[in-house]
Each structure stands twice: as C-alpha cells, then as structure tokens.
Queue: 2 jobs
Job 1
Amino acid sequence: MKLDGQVAVVTGGGRNIGEAVARLLAQEGARVAIIDMDKPRGERVAKEIAAGGRDAAAFVADVSKSAEVASTVEAIVKRFGRIDILVNNVAISDNKNILDISEEEWDRVMAVTLKGPFLMGQRVAKQMVAQGSGGKIVNIGSTSGFRGRSRAIAYSTAKGGVVNLTRSMAVQLAPHNIRVNAISPNKTGSPVGKDDFDPTRPVKNLVNRPGQPIETAQAVLFLVSDESSFIVGANLFVDGGVMAMEMQ
C-alpha cells in the first residue's frame, strides 16, 4: 500500500470530495483523521472506514478559528501519534453577486475557504517540523480561483488566494521536507455546501459529464504518495478540460 502507517488529516471529510479522499487514503494504508463541522456526518465516514478494517476517527472543528484548530490538531496527535498528510478540503460558497453579498457573508466565506487552509496548514506544518520527517500537504482549490464568475464573488476570491497560499507554503516549507501542492476541480460531485448530486446536470467540459469525487481523490493520492516526489508547489487541474477550453 502506498501510505502504509502514515497518518492523514482530511478537512471536510464527511461528504463529497473529502469523504472520497478519506476513504481512498485509508484503503492505501493511512490512518485517517476526519474533520467536519457536522459531527454525525464525520462519524459516519469514520465508522464505515473502521468497519472495513482501517483506523479512522472523527473530529469536530471550525477551521476558521485558531483555538479550535490548535486543540483539534493536538487531539489528533494524541490519538494517532503524528501527522504525515494534510488535505485542506473544506470550503463554503456565497453564490452571490458583488451587488448582493453582505460583509458578513464575505467574511465567513473568506474565513473558512482561505483562512482555514492557512490555519490548518500552519498548525500541522509545525507538527511536521517537530517530528522531523517531513510531510505532504494538498490544498483543494477550484477552477473558480482562475476566472471571474457571474456569482460567488467571495468563493472565487478565496480560491484564488488558495493558489498563491499553496505556492508560498511550498517555498517556505520545502526546507523542512514538506511538499505542498494544490488540486483544482470543477463541478465535481455535489455543489459546494450541498448534499444532493445530480449526475445529469449539464456541464461544459471536454468529457461532457460532471466529475466524480473519486477522481479528485485519486489525484490527491498521487500528490501525497512517493510517485509525486518531484512535484512541489504545483496546481493540478482535475476539471474535465475546462481550463483548456475557450470561454463561451
């Protein structure tokens, strides 16, 4: 197995992409800590992974709050002994136009979607440095971070920030043998913050279908495995070719 004995932390691990990532990393031998604000949802995934013979535990935390991040990372280390992998997946969207969004809505999206990966990345990186054996961090971005949109102005801005957060983290953590990369999906699984997935919804990409969460999870697995040992500070589009297309 590619991740045998390693400990992985997945934020937003109770549904959609985060759930698929948690399950796949566990299948590849990782012990998995699932962070989700929805306690029953996170616990369901952890219990199902454990029922399959893998080690997993659920934790509840608001990743936009530094005190909760600190106490959760401490609890994870107490439970598993170390952290080798962090997948910053959790995000929320506003689905608003600049003329409609409130300051409070803007602040909340930015706090969870951009500040969250910073706080988690900072705290977990400190743990990895203390361990002295390096690690891998993958930030989940979005094609929304590379284009203007008619709605979701805060989300697009936050995901744009995730791109350069990833690059800066990669540069600053490389001396500690911590590899940082990002993945940018497009229309994968259910929309951000929603549970319902409509596989027939129309999409414009080169494969003419929505993405499946497992497809992003497989890309995450690649970036946290030794197969990607020479890839640092990169952004991998898992988007069905959307970013290769002329805007229509």
Note: The first strand starts at residue 7 and ends at 11.
Job 2
Amino acid sequence: MEGLDTALIAAIGVSLVVWGLVSARLAALNVSAPMFFVVLGLVLANDPVSAIKVDIDSETLKSLAEVTLALLLFSDAARINRQVLRHDAGVPLRLLVVGLPLTIALGTGLAVLLFPDLDPWAAAAIAAAVAPTDAALGAQVVDDEHVPRRIRRALNVESGLNDGIATPFVTFFIAGAVANTVSNSSATLGASLGDLTIGVLTGVGIGLAAGLLMTWSATHGWSSPTYRGIATLAAALAAYALGIELGGNGFIAAFVGGLAFGTVVPGRDRDPTLEFDAQSGEFLSLVVWFLFGAAVLPALDNVTGQTVVFAVLALTVARLVPVALVLIGCRFSPVTVAFMGWFGPRGLASVVFALIAFDSLDGSTADVVIAAITLTVLLSVVAHGLTAAPLSRRYGEYVAASEQNTPEQVPVPTLGGRAQAAGHGAAPAPVPELDE
C-alpha cells in the first residue's frame, strides 16, 4: 500500500507489545511508560539503528497528537463528579484557578529574562505551554496508597483539568506572537477570541446533546452497553472536529464537551461509557510518546544554556512558588507543600502545544519556542518518572509517622483515574476519576 510506513507501524506495534509484557517489571525500576516509549523512539530513529524516520514537522505526528489530546480532554472533563468534588473542592480549585495563572505569569517572566530577543508574546506562549501538568508521568504518585488520598486526588484533579484551562492561554499568546508579524494585529487577536467562543458553544452543544441522547437511549433500552463507549468516543471526536470545522478551537470544544457530557450523564452510567474513550486516548498517548522520542533530536538543535536554565526553573521555581502561595491557609506541612509542588510533571499537552507553536510561528522564534518546550518535557519525563515511586514512599512514611487527623489525612471520596491506567502496567481503574 503506497504511502503506508510499515516499518514505523511495526516498530510501534512491537514496542506496545513489549511494554505490555514487561511494564510491571519496569515500573519496579521506576521506568514510566512515557520514559520507555520516548527512549525507544529515540533509539530506533537515530544512529546507529535508524530503523524509522519521523520528522518534527510531520503532519501525521501533529494530527495524531492533537486527536489524542482531544480524547483525553473530553474524558478527563467528563469524569468530574460535582457532588463528590464538593467534599473537598478548595485545594484543586486553588491549584487550578490561582496556581495555574501564577505559574504562567512566573514562567513568562523567566522566559522574557532568559530569551531577551524573543517576542514577549512568544515567551508567554512557552510559559503557558509548559504550565499544565500530566499525572500520567507521575502515575505512581496517585497510585500509591501510602500517599494520603486527599493529596492524590488534588493532584489528579489538577492534572485532569489544567490542560483544558491552559489551552485558551496558549492559543491567545501564539496569536499575539503571530500578530506582531502581520499588519492587522487586532484582527488576529480578535480571531483567537472568536475561535475560543465558537469552541465553547460547539462543545456545550455536542456534549449536552450526546449526553442527553445517550441517557435517554440507555433508559429506554435502545442502546447496547457494548457500544455506548464507542458512541462516547465518537462524541469526543465530533466535538473536536466540528469545533474546527466551524472555525473554532477544537481542544476547547472537546474539553467543554466533556464537562457538558458529564453534567447530564448519571454517575452510574458515566464509568462504562467513558472507559473506552479513556483507554483509546491512553493507547494513542503511548504512540505519541514514541513518535515524540523519534522526532525529538532536531527540536533540540537550538538548545542553549539559557534553554537549559529555563527548563530547570520551569520545573522547579515556576511550579513550587505558585503552589506554596496558593496552599497558604490549608495548614499543610512544608513537606506536603514541597511534595505537591514537585509533582507537577509536564506531558502530552505540552508536546501538542509545542507542535502547534512550531507550526504557527516562523524562523528563530519557532526554533526557540520548540526547543524550550521540548527540553522541559524531556527533563520532566526523566526527573518525575524516576522520583515518583521513591519520593511517594518516603512521603507516605512521613505522613504515617506524623500526628493523626492532620489536614493531609482528611477523608475524601475514592480516587480513580487516567493516571492509574497510563503508566505502570496496572489495569485501568474501574471507577471514574472522582466517582465512587
């Protein structure tokens, strides 16, 4: 079949099989799924092996990464159980509503200082792209029952929703960077706001319609449970694709669609209907990590000393300081604050944002942006992957040895979620992210 890269497909297929066979053993060695697939893609695509070839500007890579993120945005947002979340909404809301914008602001300041020749809009785009966290890179944190459930849930809720919240920031900042290269900047920025509005409206329409129709169909016995998951996956794809077709932002459409879907689908039905969507997204995410590893070296050609400093500060100062500020008043111990601040791994969303920025920007600006985002993600894959299990164990021991009834130990509903299914060979959790 002309145009079908069978070598690449074979490499991906074999890699997935190998991971399925040895994932638990590698997890014991603190090797996460993103680490495994990035390294494997890197080895197979470069000398001396050079068995496959993937370009960083490949339309296939960009399209697959975007669809994967859309599926995960929909399923993560749809899992929100507002009744359960009310039991302890304060910590996740602090991290999302205040902590994320603070992280973007601090990251922007660092990027402006370290890349003085870079347009401030592009610097802000870098900061927004590396701000959202991905629990799949630190799955052992939210899997480890030694870590208090309240802390695990807060980190998982944050990582499940901040991708969608960061998307408007990234979109607007990239539009601002592009606007400086054209004559009518107000039109470009105005268009980005219009895109976001169309995405919101499309997502609300698709999510509500799909959720209401699916609930009615299930209630009246019209639909088979076997195919409800496929219908949910289709709804996520429809929200994303229709949002783009109508001239809007597909990611916002998928994210808002998931929120709307989860609002009208009863909790007892949400788990089975979302399981297939979540598993499909996780499968594709592993493929994206493999392709990212295969294409990463050219993206690092423009790494400088300033890029390294930015990546390190983005993973530490730009995350730790905002988390410490927003948790003031929660009465958490300094150890807990540091633990939550450190486990903010950057993942799939940042990869997608990097590809979008590279596709939208030109020349040296695009090179600096993609180098900064790529290096930050790579460092996060390694650092958070290696430290997740040992630091979780040590933190769990610290909490167990502390006084009882501390704020960290306040009981909250059972936690499931995407991170548990994503990284270490465990079967996907049978419960939604915030459902019991």
Note: The domain at 6-422 is CATH 1.20.1530.20 (Na+/H+ antiporter like fold).
